[in-house]
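Course assignment 3, question 2. Fill in each field.
Student: A.L.
Task: Predict the tertiary structure for the chain below.
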Amino acid sequence: MALKRIQDLAAATLPLDGTELLEFEQAGVSVQATAQDIADLAAAGAGDVVGPAGSIDNTLPRYDSTTGKLLQGSGVAVSDTDQISGYRVNINKQTGTSYTLVEADRGKVVELNNGSAIALTADPTLDADFACTIVQMGAGVVTVASSGGGAVINRQSQFDTAGQHAVCGIYCTANVGGSAAQFVFYGDTA
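Answer field:
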């Protein structure tokens, strides 16, 4: 018998003060508990997260506000075959002539837009699974390097974007000791 049903029966049939021993059968096993034990279990399992009255199949919920207690629907869906759809890319727009990639750029598109050459530094302390997309939006060619103990590699030893609207990526394959990241630079390179 479900916990909620036991509480309803107890409340409807007897005025209980919480100390009475109730007997019931759960999954074929005889169980004894006080009315207070049952009330405590119900309160502990009830939780306080509140969400919409309905949902759309396969969509992910997301928090609404910062209380950690309110959920809302989202447009992001995960199909029954684990395909993700409905998400929007997060873009970091930079207009200077230099920029250093940071942890907050993980998974983002970093747009670099300037008429002059742009120096892009891959921080050697980034984690071994860091990756982002780089787009040269303006006329200024983007040159990628790392500082300190980091290294940038490319199959053709190309470390510049190929021109305006070139799309490239950078992926950190390893980081020895947390300060010697190895980055692969790939895509529309020159």
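Instructor remarks: Residues 48-88 form one domain. The chain has a mean pLDDT of 86.
Grade: pending
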